[in-house]
Automatic annotation (TrEMBL):
<feature type="domain" description="Nitroreductase">
    <location>
        <begin position="7"/>
        <end position="170"/>
    </location>
</feature>
<keyword id="KW-0285">Flavoprotein</keyword>
<keyword id="KW-0520">NAD</keyword>
<protein>
    <submittedName>
        <fullName>Nitroreductase</fullName>
    </submittedName>
</protein>
<keyword id="KW-0560">Oxidoreductase</keyword>
<keyword id="KW-0288">FMN</keyword>
<comment type="similarity">
    <text>Belongs to the nitroreductase family.</text>
</comment>
<dbReference type="InterPro" id="IPR029479">
    <property type="entry name" value="Nitroreductase"/>
</dbReference>
<dbReference type="Pfam" id="PF00881">
    <property type="entry name" value="Nitroreductase"/>
</dbReference>
<dbReference type="InterPro" id="IPR026021">
    <property type="entry name" value="YdjA-like"/>
</dbReference>
<dbReference type="InterPro" id="IPR052530">
    <property type="entry name" value="NAD(P)H_nitroreductase"/>
</dbReference>
<dbReference type="InterPro" id="IPR000415">
    <property type="entry name" value="Nitroreductase-like"/>
</dbReference>
<keyword id="KW-0521">NADP</keyword>
Length: 192
């Protein structure tokens, strides 16, 4: 079965070609993602795709956030300016950034259900992407937890949570398979 091969062969991608992915292909990939299991058919996932000129707003919001939370200095020191420029160009070179977010639930059980469904959506999407020759990197970054960052990209942190930011593009380099521990170390059969 092709899916079993894809599950094993998919890798997180850290180096992308500059070529962008057509919106129709992106929509196909996320459509496969949306066949993830979802309790009460809530389909809690939402995606904002930053690409082409749209990346500038997103990258500026990241830099502002890093300055606010102290990961970048907020001064005119040439070293700081150089660091900011290299961070900007690194982020702008990634062809697509997909912000995956969902409506927060007040009830912790419901919250977990929604987060779990969104994670299933993300992994389905990564597997579908691989079938299209598209690579992704699942990232969880400090700015995702900065309310002002959410505001800067048009989201209200009172109501929504960002689950992940997915970097996307055609792989320039596919990392080696790091393998996995034996499942025997992770499971037990209880039969009586
Ligand atoms: C919830 C989650 C968050 C992750 N966040 C990051 C991240 O912020 N930066 C990163 O380089 N990789 C991140 N990864 C990717 C893992 O590093 C990667 O899946 C792991 O090294 C195994 O490699 P593989 O996906 O190629 O099998 C994340 C993965 C998951 C599931």
């Amino acid at each position: 079965m092709e899916i079993l091969k894809t599950i094993k062969e998919r890798r997180s991608i850290y180096n992308f070609k500059t070529k962008t992915i057509d919106n129709t292909i992106i929509k196909d990939i996320f459509t496969y993602g949306s066949y993830a299991p979802t309790h009460y058919m809530k389909e809690p996932w939402n995606v904002k795709l930053y690409q082409k000129e749209g990346k500038y707003v997103f990258v500026e919001a990241i830099i502002s956030s890093y300055k606010r939370i102290g990961l970048l200095k907020n001064d005119k020191d040439p070293k700081t300016i150089k660091m900011i420029e290299s961070m900007k160009s690194f982020l702008l070179e990634i062809p697509h950034h997909a912000v995956v977010y969902f409506e927060k639930e007040a009830d912790p059980v419901r919250f977990e259900e929604e987060y779990a469904a969104v994670c299933a959506f993300i992994q389905n999407t990564q597997l579908a992407a691989w079938e299209y020759g598209v690579g992704m990197l699942w990232t969880i970054t400090p700015y995702m937890h900065d309310p002002r960052f959410l505001e800067d990209i048009g989201l209200n942190s009172d109501n929504v949570k960002i689950a992940a930011v997915m970097q996307m593009g055609y792989p320039a380099k596919v990392p080696r398979d790091k393998g996995r521990k034996s499942i025997d170390d992770k499971m037990e059969f209880i039969e009586n």
